[in-house]
Amino acid sequence: MAEEAAIIARVLASPLDVDAAAWNALLAQQSHPTPFLRHEYLAALHESGSATPRTGWMPRFMTLWEGDTLVAACPLYLKNHSYGEYVFDWAWASAYEQHGVPYYPKAVVAVPFTPVPGTRLLARDGATRSLLLQAVRQWCEQEGVSSVHMLFASGDDVQSGAEQDWMLRHTVQFHWKNDHYQNFDHFLASLSQDKRKKIRQERRRVAEAGVRFRWSRGAGISTADWDFFYRCYERTYLEHGNPPYLTRDFFARMAAHLPEAWLLFVAERDGRPIAASLIAIGASPSGGNGLKDQNLVAYGRYWGALERVDCLHFEACYYQPLQWCIDHGVQRFEGGAQGEHKMARALLPVQATSAHWLAHPAFAEAVERFLEREGAGVEGYLQELQARSPFKTMA
């Protein structure tokens, strides 16, 4: 009890108010770190104008201190919309509005625009993690915030939420695992004949169109390549009728302050770049599989093209990254949310979990019933997908 009494909470209005070394040291102690929760990433989102009050992301980072020592922290944002989260609660907001109850502002414990599962609560131990989550809820109650949503959380974070009666919500993502593949053909040999044939056909179409790929990593990615990537990334968003979430300055800050986290593939035809895909590289929480870079995991993030080539998206976003992962002994490639087409490329379904707290008792009860029904549907969907494995059936 004495130790808990010595811990005080401070809410900070910017990630820049947190010491970077202390934040990253806490992150390194967690079971599921990703590059997206590094201080450099969150600071770049803020300083580049990508995630700021102007764009609807008002930082209120929760920190716990024991004297001058940071013992727990999490990224906390107040929001007046639900864009850039990838766990969709528009129906909840609509129900609140129909009953004359304000849903916004709400709070999210999340990495803006980044639906990648991983640690959200940085803490030195489980007890401190629980205190941190309690502090988030208590502060939101004091501020009259309608709800808190901890998105794409790690297993440790989910457990802390469940212990405090937060409601759990499950979604499906698609991840690829490196099963000690010696090369891409060895990987293909593990697939069923129709999937193997399909992938070879798709890769052949891109090659016959005269497209060749090159890759660069970290400091080897030139400013010109970053500029070209951003043209592709921006065009993809604009073609869907929306401006991109991330600014060019954000990626400039990544190149300057977190270069080791990025891998860029550039597609060229007749000596001209025509498309690009950007992959993030980070430490894996599991490891231990005997591969030469067993502590690495790759994350598919962004892509875009200036010319249309049949099957170019599959080559840039799946086959080139998978081949790179095999060549470099990377154990997992996370392809992200949505898209059953990823299964045909050997990305298998996995469950991702978020935790939610709603202040209004009646709405909390209604959402809990909804999540029970939705959860049963997600479980059935996972089972259905798992029955459609692209891999060879063992006799």
Automatic annotation (TrEMBL):
<protein>
    <submittedName>
        <fullName>GNAT family N-acetyltransferase</fullName>
    </submittedName>
</protein>
<dbReference type="Pfam" id="PF04339">
    <property type="entry name" value="FemAB_like"/>
</dbReference>
<keyword id="KW-0808">Transferase</keyword>
<dbReference type="InterPro" id="IPR007434">
    <property type="entry name" value="FemAB-like"/>
</dbReference>
<dbReference type="InterPro" id="IPR016181">
    <property type="entry name" value="Acyl_CoA_acyltransferase"/>
</dbReference>
<dbReference type="GO" id="GO:0016740">
    <property type="term" value="F:transferase activity"/>
</dbReference>
